[in-house]
Amino acid sequence: MTDPFRKLEPPSGGWAATRERIMEHERRRFQRLVVLATAALFALVFALVARPDRQDDQRARPALDRGVHPDLAMFDPVTEPVRIAPSARGHAGLLRVETPENPDVIFYHVLTTPPSRQ
Amino acid sequence: MPDNENTFDEVALELLYRKLEKPLYNVVYRWVWDGAEARDILQETFLRLWKMQARVRPETVEPLAYKIALNLARKRLRRKKILSWVGLEGRPPPPSEQPDPEETMRQEERDETVRAAVESLAPKYRDVILLSEFSELTYDEIAAALDIQPGTVASRRHTAIKMLRDKLEGWSPREDA
To answer: Do the Cβ atoms of A48 and A74 come closer than 8 Å?
Structure first.
């Protein structure tokens, strides 16, 4: 008679090997936690160190004092918003006139000379 | 005060290992037919139980252990079949525990016959017959381990026994299952 369910003995030392595997898993889990905590610490330090410094704040101060929106305060102002296209029909010039009351308000006088007749 | 009845600590895991080592090994072995692999699956099963210890309930941990082990065994078997198909892994030899060469040969022949008979069973029948023969689980617990109804356990076991009897003359299952 053939017994398909003859009981086999498992190899010895099974629990010791299993326990070692569990300990290895715990060691790896602890290492992962340490790595994650270190990475979080580095991220925090980086965020503190890399934030906009006081010098930037000082450069933005004049614009902020004029009531410019904080998001725009650090932008360089447009150098000259008005220009005259070159023309062969005559000469033209631009005179910049700042208003002492409000530096954001600038007048431009356009001066022209008639084209010379040759 | 901690609730000691519900803690699944290392001591509880070791006790469970001592209890289930042999039956689990035998069940898994009949899937992978390789002692080293069966041992590895046994260890992996208990590692997984350890990982999910917060969710383990003592009253259902035994069916859970069999469920994990059977899933792992089936997964390994699929991998072995694929590796064998691409020619990277051969069929492992059956275990030989007899020092006498003639007896060893006879035993190996018997093991081969048994293996062929067990492997001829569809997985759903094999699971049921292996658990009912090796584990000390009740039909309800086997049903829980396999996600089937207890009545299905009985009918599948009956079918599996009939199939094995056809292939293995003179064999009869244990009666207390």
So the answer is: no
- CA nearest to A26 within chain B: B51
Residue B146's closest CA among B155, A18, B44, A9? Answer: B155
Q: Which residue has the tokens 């000469």?
A: A91
Residue A76 has pLDDT above 70, yes or no: no
Higher pLDDT, A26 or A83: A26
Percent of chain B with pLDDT over 70: 84
For residue A7, give every residue at least 6 positions away whose Cβ sits within 8 Å of its Cβ, in sequence order, or none: B22, B26, B134
- A4 lies within 8 A of chain B by CB: yes
Report the residue count for chain A. Answer: 118
Q: What CA–CA distance (Å, rounded) separates B77 from B73?
A: 6
Counting one residue from chain A and one from chain B, the pairs whose CB atoms sit within 8 A come to 76
Q: And the tokens for A26?
A: 């715990």
- A57-71 confidence digits (pLDDT tens): 677 777 777 766 666
Question: What is the dihedral angle through the alpha carbons of B6, B11, B16, B21, rounded to the nearest 10 degrees?
Answer: 160
In terms of C-beta density within 10 A (0-12 exposed, 13-18 middle, 19 or more buried), how is residue B72 classed?
A: buried
Instruction: Identify whether the C-beta of residue B16 lies closer than 8 Å to the C-beta of residue B65.
Output: yes
